[in-house]
């Protein structure tokens, strides 16, 4: 055991990533030393190597051109993992990486030492959402787009079924024999079967290329393997097998073969001779080069034609991978922020937050900017921002009964929450952990340096003492790379003497729209739209859009779903990720939880924040212990209920190892009954309370969809809400349609 622990400690040292803290002197992650800007070019190079390796494998006297395939090229999704790490973890943390100031798509990990391993397969949730519909629901599906059905063709179900072909295969494979041999039977096979003969075969890896995709859910391994058919067996597998895998596979390919790759999606059920060992179900997604194309690749002697062919094949493969396994191309906002270097300004900003909280408690306001004595005595350790509660179905009737001006609605921006505090000589971003941040200075400006004030462009325009509430989010304008902006959704103070928290939201919104916190000498607009396109501005300010509740349908018409993400697009200023709706009451600001401030989230983004609990003496290293906050500073153990799939757990452990965080954001997919991991929450110091968790589970149970909200919020004040009646009628029509379809399917064919 001591030797194993020493080996693990050595591996952790080699594979650790540079942490954001300056005091951390761990070496760089060895698996992130070979960045790849163009994965398609890397595939092109590897496919050239595949051709050479295949030729080298053949005996020298083998006549060409070859007419029968003896090998296969496949690209498999999974996670590259650190060898011998316990608990198992991915080779790097999740999220886009920046190398020399530029985001990097991928890293080649084929030659790094220690050599990484591959955990093949995807989670049940990803498998279901990406592939389960197949061609039965072909319009606008992931598989259709991956195989080149884009634009209008992607939304035309008939066109998709005309262009693509789907085949199904069930196979039983017995493994565990010497030399990696296996025995395959067509269909479902049991040890009592007396029909059909098995075929014995073996595979040998000839070339392997590993590509880590940190910003995607999964990595990819591309390999060339030889296939050897051995002796046929009888109806029973030879003795000595240790595993039985039943593969239920669906394969997709273009009928015109204009894309040379076939997509295989497979559900694999593995059982064992030892009945005490539980069976497992895994989900695999692979891309295989069509055999005829592989033969053409191996036979090609013309260098120019070979280059053209491998370039095209590499581009096709990367297109497929990027559609099925989409990159989260919006960078983490934390990559563009740093700790504020002015500790005195940070202390002043924290005291300003405390002064605002005290004002709402007592009605007395004294700013630490004008009274420095409060800097050390007036600060608060708890973030005083207003926090929403989950939207429940009963809230619909409540909102409908109120006047149209009782609530203001906005999209829920998927960013990081901050108070923006103007101290006079600088600006401090205060996060939920009560830490002072600022954007990275723009040093590319002529004469600029790393020590320059990043808010110099607006510092003279806004009065000291102003406090804005908002979020830092990545603006994803199509004409340039994503860049951080600060979306302001509330105003807490407009000067050192004028807090406005006590005002109804409608009046605070008026302060925001009129920018009543501007200085008397301000000659420019601090919300100048041109600043978003100006890369010399470190963090442009953008006002959030609010609408009346009957205009929700129009608000959500600007939400676009693509590549597994939702983006709110409304002009150049608003082009960012979104995950729900905020119902803002027209009432004074509440420091802390406001039971009237409501948040609705898309069901696949409803999450909870849990704490990573220390292992107990009886736990092994693979145990994941999680907890949430209980009453009176207690912890509620959730380990029995929150069970992550292997791939999700490996991503969590990689993030946890590199950030040393202890709060993780996890979610539950009600369609598959599976938990999933999102990210480590470095901006939080405590998990959700058990009451919040129960509210979240209730939200999932209610399954309140965006379509229902759009319908019911559009009902004018005083009008009757007929949603339930209309929905029952629509469901009855759907059931009648199904009955008619099944009746037609059972009708016998006419005799000839």
Biggest sheet strand order reads 2-10-9-8-7-11-12-13
Q: Which structural class do the helices and strands define?
A: alpha+beta
In whole angstroms, the N-to-C terminal distance is 76 Å
Biggest sheet record: 8 strands, antiparallel, barrel
Describe the protein in words.
By secondary structure, the chain is an alpha+beta fold. The protein is built from 17 helices and 32 strands. It has an eight-stranded antiparallel β-barrel with strand order 2-10-9-8-7-11-12-13, surrounded by six helices. A seven-stranded mixed beta sheet has the order 14-19-18-17-20-21-22. The termini are far apart. The N terminus is likely disordered.
Keywords, separated by commas or semicolons:
752 residues; single chain; globular; alpha+beta; seven-stranded mixed beta sheet
Question: Short description, anyone?
Answer:
With 752 residues, the protein is an alpha+beta fold. The termini are far apart.
Write the topology of this structure.
Elements: H1 2-15, E1 35-36, H2 39-57, E2 71-81, E3 97-99, E4 102-104, E5 106-108, E6 117-120, H3 124-131, H4 142-146, H5 157-163, E7 164-175, E8 182-186, E9 199-212, E10 219-232, E11 243-254, E12 261-271, E13 280-289, H6 291-299, H7 303-324, E14 337-339, H8 343-362, H9 374-377, E15 386-390, H10 394-401, E16 407-413, E17 416-422, E18 427-430, E19 436-439, E20 467-475, E21 483-493, H11 505-514, H12 530-533, E22 541-543, E23 547-548, H13 552-556, E24 559-562, E25 565-570, E26 574-585, E27 592-601, E28 607-612, E29 626-629, E30 635-637, H14 646-659, E31 663-669, E32 674-680, H15 690-702, H16 706-713, H17 723-746
Parallel strand pairs: 15-27, 21-22
Antiparallel strand pairs: 1-5, 2-6, 2-10, 2-13, 3-4, 5-9, 7-8, 7-11, 8-9, 9-10, 11-12, 12-13, 14-19, 16-23, 16-26, 17-18, 17-20, 18-19, 20-21, 24-25, 25-26, 26-27, 28-29, 28-31, 29-30, 31-32
